[in-house]
Amino acid sequence: MFAIRTISVAIALSATAAFAGDQTLPRADEISLDSGLTRAQVIADFQAARAAGQILQGDAVVLHPDETSTQSTVSRTEALHKPQAARDAGLIPSGEQ
What we know:
mainly alpha; flat
């Protein structure tokens, strides 16, 4: 168990180092600031998107019950017995195993 954990940490650290080395900033001549839109057009696009509800502001994200609830196909009794059966079969390690 300790070896698996050690290998996992080593893999995570090497992946982090690989991604950290790939953070090069663009050069000034690679950046284009000319979008072809006027300030008024950008503001009008923003206001239209906000009016259409495409832009969220602050904590305005409210999920309605019909968007979050799902109907379970498993009974309560089955849901309670599945973890115990898995533990008894040795599929869930506990303690120093």
